Amino acid sequence: MGSSVGMSGCSIIVDIVNNSKAKKAEEEAAAAKEAELAKAREELEAMRQGAIDPAATPQQVWDYSLALGEVYDANEQDAMGVDGSWLTELETALTQRLDGAGGLSADNSLLGYSLAQVYLWTERPDEGAGTLLEFAKLGGEGPMTSVELFDSIAGLPPSDVTNAAVLELCPTLRPQIEGVNGFVSTCLDRAGGDISKLSWEGVLADLESYARSGYAKGPAAGTFTYQSKVKGYKKTFWALGFVENTSGVFLENPKVTAVLVDEGGAELGTFQGYAMIDELAPGVRAPVSILVNDPPKYADIRYEFNPEQADYLSDPVDGLRVEALQPRRKRYGWKVEGKVLSEASKPAQFVKVVVSALDADGQLVGATSTYIDEDKLEPGGEARWSTTSMDTARKPVSFEYQVTARVAD
């Protein structure tokens, strides 16, 4: 009697054959992978032995550190047979060689970079930042440029050490930077928003550019410093001072409130004044004159200033310059006059000149503002301005001038 295999039986046989082939392919792939790993482990071990040899070249050490770094970056320490002692022995070898060479230098830059890598792999960013900073001071010798070094340090977690390293490099790197706003953002973040920690030529112009960009972020911050008192009629007087923008954003209509208090600290009345520049750029100061009109008897004055970030900024007009004649004392105040000259590329309107009178100690003793005689100032043009009644607390010895404007419609 013959026998036959049904369709279901054929399917079972085919499945068995396919499964056998798949299993064999998996085994072959696993064997190939293990052989590849074994070869990689052998090559890494050879690099290791060569790198920790005191006679190893800096390039050998650097190549080994890069290979070891790839293992750590891929989290393949177990697969490659690497344990923590490898980093310890590499750090020891590098430290001994650098100490023997008298420290970091352009000649042993690859050794220094290797040591910095070890610090970063062992989660010691402060030590890594210190090493990278030393190379940045050398001008970016070795496999990284100064800008790349800066970016590497700026990418480390914030700490007192890493922040200080970034801020130390900011003035040095600025001439090499094209993307100013992002650069300022990085430096300002490491400064904790304190613009006084940013110190390079042209920093105020860079801060203004940043403050007008999408990088700008608050909070707004500023100070008011009382300077002097200008007497008026009877008990009336003007309290003068400077508002300074200490943040990286524009301040809008800075307002200062003078609070009169009695001997017990109880409030008796308030008077307000605004900065004479309504859009105050980062790092810029502007005079404030607060009219205290017929005040009650008081023991002291407290000044309140709550800076607010500008929600909207008018288009700037760059290239306006103030020329002033020698101020003259008149019967009812100081006469100050001059011209505003435009070297701008756009017509300007609402052109305002702010005048600050200073004594020998640099204290503000008088302040006023006025607009030019013309409604609009064209590029290449000039317009006169004058003020005739600026009272002062005492005789000034110098004058400062600021000019603001908006692009004409």
TrEMBL record:
It comes from the Bacteria. Keywords: Coiled coil. Residues 23-50 form a coiled coil. NCBIfam families: FxLYD_dom. This is Uncharacterized protein. It comes from Plesiocystis pacifica SIR-1.
